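Thread: 2-deoxy-2-amino glucitol-6-phosphate complex, take 2
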Amino acid sequence: MCGIVAYVGPKDAAPILLEGLQRLEYRGYDSAGVVVSNKGLKVRKVKGRVADLAKVVPARFKGGLGIGHTRWATHGVPSDVNAHPHLSADERIAVVHNGIIENAAELRAKLEADGVVFASETDTEVLAHLIAHAADENETLEEAVRKTLKSVVGTYGIAVIDAERPGEVVVARNGSPIVLGIGEKEMFAASDVAALVRYTRQVVHLEDGELAVLKADGFHTFASDARETAKEPLTVDWDAGHYDTGGYEHYLLKEISEQPETVTRTMSGRLDERFHVAHLGGLNMDARETRSFRRVKIIGCGSAYYSGQIGAQLIEELARIPSDAEPASEFRYRNPVVDPDTLYVAISQSGETYDTLAAVQELKRKGGRVIGIVNAVGSAIAREVDGGIYLHAGPEVSVASTKAFTSTAVAFALLALHLGRVRDLSPADGRRIVEGLRRLPGQIGEILAQSDKIAELAKKYAGHAGMMFVGRVRGYPVAREGAQKLKEISYVHAEAYPASELKHGPLALIGPDMPTVAIVPDDELLDKNLTTLGEIRARGGQVLMVGHREPSAKLADDAIVIPKNEIELDPILLTIPLQLFAYYAAVALGRDVDKPRNLAKSVTVE
Ligand code: AGP
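Output below.
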């Protein structure tokens, strides 16, 4: 997705903007640009990488005010011309924009009728022309921006500079994140804290509808009706080191390898060995309220949704509350019935996924009680919910989610324990789960130690055009996540099915060219799963089994054997070998592992 960086202060803006844009590269983009103000606006923009942009920004690009952008094309092909910043016809105003202006065609037609000639095909360029017109009629840039945005329908995070006001940047947010960074006599803004942490850890998140004016000596924020708003700066506990590969070849491998520590952080200070409960103060709920829910509904997108399926299973098993998960992107559009006795749980690593945020807002509007399971502290979803559980997994840079997935599953185990122990979950079962959770980091380490073997298996299977992933009940969301990881980073077609459903259709696909990854934990469904393996093998299908015991050669060609935990927690450990399998398959196929084609880290558009 697109990225924004802005700077105003005593230093030269260009190197700071380029460094910030590099930090945002992980989000996915196709072109990049910067503009600095120094006796007029100086612009460079290119189709390609930030490194290509750096090559065309000359040393004489001086000036302490500037904005920069990485673009992920929506309106118009990736090209130098369509790259941001966009300038008004008189080259007075420059704008960078994330999001989509829905009435851009209509606004463009009006401007063209007034004689404005457009340089690009983008929706953003209308903003530059409209703000330039408003700047002629208003005393301040902030007023010009505020009034312009009244005529705009759609989502935006924007940064705007005016050649005639060389000491300020105006930023605004509606559905696309903007965070301010407070420095020593300098101010920053960006669409993601990743771009800021090298310079400051004091940040302020804008709310939808808010605008801010940044000057070297400070900032002020205001609402769309011009009323000033009060903001408390937050200190982010992520620093620049969190955004390095730390000696690993890819962020993805680093993040997979960090999981013993990240799941430990998710549990840290939350497990109680005396009463065998989980302390989740962030839920803002007393015991009576915790007991009152009769259903749990979980929403999230992509891998977050699959981790929600694991969560629903955990809550049903441990707390015996009917629970289910649904893609937030579907939920928000189907006019859901919102029930006062249901606890709604929204999951998001980034906390900025537009579909999940919109679903939360719809729930809140209808009076639903919504908690969040979120990684990014202070993000839009974290601010919108009534309470929640932070993952504390640290920034996840690679587009494919790994450590946030396992930390979310652990957070659900904590939530299930919490909900269960105020109901019928016995102290003995509570202790079993607490002890099982404590064993997870060491067991993840044992799985990671099998990386070489998993890399060999990945090489063996990566050449196939497609793979089937199957699992039953607890194993099914694991199969879905395994297939998701493989397809998104290796581009190998992967289909996930409940093992029980194979014979109702997809078995027709099974044969020597379609290997199956079978999730076969040692649980009450083991025999059923082994029967499925027999059915696959009888049709000439190759099987890679992931489970707790070495299968007979009759049932599987290969196996990854992992340590056993409590059956309810099995999905967490079963996921790890599939992450490694996808990673090594992608490496074997020479893919861009951390930035897979067509995808973005956080999907802040509809
Ligand atoms: C995961 O590998 C994907 N890149 C994607 O499905 C992701 O989980 C989804 O877009 C939700 O993101 P979020 O957790 O930041 O809301």
